[in-house]
Design a protein that fits this description.
CATH class: Mainly Beta
Helix content: 10-25%
Number of domains: 1
Radius of gyration: 18 Å
Order of helices and strands: EEHHHEEEEEEEEEHEEE
Strand content: 25-35%
CATH superfamily: Aromatic compound dioxygenase
Largest sheet: 5 strands, mixed
CATH architecture: Sandwich
Distance between the termini: 40 Å
CATH topology: Protocatechuate 3,4-Dioxygenase, subunit A
Mean pLDDT: 82
């Protein structure tokens, strides 16, 4: 894939600021990016696009009830996951896949997993979860669908994707902490559009006006294999 086929942002140094080389490299592409970003602020960021994937037929009430989690004091009723802006780089019709990694990538690998639940803590099987992110070079790919795709949750509302940690960037003068965009919807729920952040990026969170501490995933190292980030999405009833 040609580099020009991807939408570039300005990656940050370790201290979060773009280097001189980064700024010069962005060069002419900055004008086009600014126009694209402003268009996104006026459209996509204000009005989230709907999912285009067909949702499965909802299970009968008795089957859905059988899938409910055992009620506990912490899992009887819980608030819906906070929404967050869609941003200008969403693609509405991505491939069905659970592995975003490119062959030969240079990123730090990550497994993102969790469940999709309703506000009564019941898992939602067959929900669509659509994810997209910048890659290890702080680029969004809207041509070959790199680091983006959708899947359907399993019987217990579970999902899992293999990817790499996204890189933070600066766009239109605004610093963005590393994050993954998400859209999720069940057959009987409203559409949720949100973002996931990571606890190890605390310094960059302070520079990101879009950061929300309630959207930070639980990140754990594993004895073998990549770190695992866990986040459960709670959807409101339609």
């Amino acid at each position: 894939m040609k580099e020009g086929a991807r939408i570039s942002t300005i990656p940050t140094r370790d201290d979060g600021r773009p280097t001189r080389r980064d700024v010069l490299t962005a060069g002419l592409g900055g004008l086009g990016l600014a126009a694209l970003g402003l268009g996104g602020l006026a459209s996509k960021q204000l009005v989230a696009q709907p999912l285009v994937y067909d949702l499965p037929t909802p299970a009968p009430p008795d089957v859905a009830l059988a899938l409910a989690l055992a009620p506990t004091p912490a899992c009887v009723d819980q608030p819906a996951t906070d929404p967050s802006e869609e941003g200008p780089f969403y693609a509405p019709n991505t491939p069905l896949k659970t592995d975003f990694r490119r062959p030969g990538h240079r990123g730090r690998e990550l497994v993102l997993r969790g469940r999709v639940l309703d506000v009564r803590c019941r898992p939602i099987p067959g929900a669509v979860i659509d994810l997209w992110q910048a890659d290890e070079d702080a680029l969004y790919d809207n041509i070959d669908y790199g680091y983006r795709g959708h899947q359907f949750t399993g019987p217990g509302g579970e999902f899992e994707v293999s990817t790499v940690f996204p890189k933070g960037y600066v766009i239109l003068g605004m610093a963005r902490s590393p994050h993954i965009h998400v859209k999720a919807q069940g057959a009987r729920t409203k559409l949720l559009t949100t973002q996931i952040f990571f606890p190890e990026d605390a310094e960059s969170h302070a520079r990101d006006p879009r950061f929300n501490p309630r959207l930070v995933a639980d990140l754990r190292q594993t004895a073998s294999g990549p770190p695992v980030a866990t986040f459960d999405f709670v959807l409101e009833d339609a």
